[in-house]
Amino acid sequence: MTSTVPNAVEHTDAQQPPITMFGPDFPYAYDDFLAHPAGLGQVPATEHGTEVAIIGGGLSGIVAAYELMKMGLRPVVYEADQLGGRLRTVGFDGCDADLNCELGAMRFPPSSTALQHYIDLVGLTTRPFPNPLAEATPSTVVDLKGETHYARTIDDLPQVYRDVADAWNKCLDEGADFSDMNRAMRERDVPRIREIWAKLVEKLDNQTFYGFLCDSEAFRSFRHREIFGQVGFGTGGWDTDFPNSILEILRVVYTEADDHHRGIVGGSQQLPLRLWEREPEKIVHWPYGTSLQSLHADGEPRPAVTRLHRTAGNRITVTDAGGDIRTYRAAIFTAQSWMLLSKIDCDDSLFPIDHWTAIERTHYMESSKLFVPVDRPFWLDKDEETGRDVMSMTLTDRMTRGTYLLDDGPDKPAVICLSYTWCDDSLKWLPLSANERMEVMLKSLGEIYPNVDIRKHIIGNPVTVSWENEPYFMGAFKANLPGHYRYQRRLFTHFMQDRLPADKRGIFLAGDDISWTAGWAEGAVQTALNAVWGVMHHLGGATDATNPGPGDVYDEIAPVELPED
Fold it and tell me: What gap in Å lies between CA 4 and CA 395, rounded to an integer?
């Protein structure tokens, strides 16, 4: 068992093919596209060396730049802060360089198969992440309303938790055809996926996550809904998602995005950094040994973009913080979309008005983390009276909410994520410094573990982040509210520009903010590949007939379109 409240249907590899983040909105096999020997496509030789602006050096921007470089184009990456975006790995002052923490993405499901392509490509390794009740987690403590329960599996928890698990299973099957959709996605049965999803989008677009639970007979008990919100499934409590669209939650459970997570050994930021430095073996136009790094002066991306506007010939003109002005025939924007409303001076003509509306209406969730380095994984010590671990991965309704224990072995320094919170729980931390946050967290954990002196094991200063306070992010990740499906569809499908007026083409949106799998690196990769196809097509290129790209099959798998009236 890998989650506090498991998904409705448990499968083994022998029973079913493995699942991927394949649909349901756009059931395109990005992993097959990437693995095909024909590659992602090509542009005419006359376009080789053409510069393409890549605005944002997060995972989406670096993937797009890397693939365009392989086609013989010259990506020009702009980055306001540091390469990696929300893949941000940092160390602790005064501690061993190998000791680090993940301020952004820290756990990745096996269903992120396009992401895994790049993890494998750059030679990174992964290991199981210690989520609540995961097989890699020695023990879990659930602490609600002052009652503390120690568990290794869900069977160790009181009956009410299993009742909540059963309620969630029934709710999914009765209200969202979970078993049928899970089977269709495993088998990559596109017609069946579209048939099921079209009905659900029309039925549930205006429904919140909480309303979906309340409409289920299985969740008629408020106590069950409360426990489910505080403990949840997979990664922990989900009550911070209760106001969001239920469609967002269904995308997660259908694709098993919240299950069987793995962390990247050495930190997730290595992925974009290694792609930046990588010299691909198969590359067009450029000499062997070319990398994104080598195509940029001093091996560094250009600075922050301060202005975007259109100029004659439907060109995209970019002004950066250094005052440099460059004009491009194509550009990909992968940064946080609200940057287009605030920090970047933009022409209204960049996008159609309904796309501007969608950007403005995008909803972001807040998120905070705080980490401390410790001398060793002392939580594996055994209590002399009970024989239990002295401390466990902890889910609680106290201020910390989720506490994760991360180690590299019994005799090495380790890391505690004292708190990982979202939305209102994150905003509670916003006014506090790192040290002030640590004091509140240690107090909360001291009430759960009165006999454990966490403080004496701390060997360095705490490290914290509040993503809503980060000037180039203003939030952790996008999450649609009820009624936002139409907005998300406009943004995701923006790469299909033959359908736009000629004076609205040439700049392509990409990144987690416009993906269907919000909050997951897989969405950043998928939208990057959409944008790569869009730029290639815009410049007169095409895919190989044996490996059609996302735009080639668009009419067959286009997202459900809801009426605008």
Answer: 10
Contact 420, 464 (CB under 8 A): no
Backbone angles phi, psi at 346, to 5 degrees: -120, 145
CB 429 within 8 A of CB 467: no
Q: How long, in residues, is the chain? A: 565
Nearest Cα to 524, choosing from 535, 513, 540? 513
Give the side-chain half-sphere CA count within 13 A for 284: 21
Could you give the 3-state DSSP secondary structure of residue 416? Answer: strand
| Spatial CA neighbour of 558 closest among 198, 183, 60 | 198
pTM higher than the cut 0.90:
yes
In sequence order, what E strands does 33-88 have? 51-55, 74-78
Are 437 and 416 in contact, with CB atoms under 8 Å apart? Answer: no
Q: How far is CA 42 from CA 32, 39, 389, 533, 542, in A?
A: 17, 8, 56, 10, 6
Structure-block tokens of residue 235: 């990664």
Q: What is the pLDDT of residues 151-181, one digit of tens each?
A: 999 899 999 999 998 999 999 999 999 999 9
The residue type at 283: I
**CA 363 to centroid of chain Cα atoms:** 15
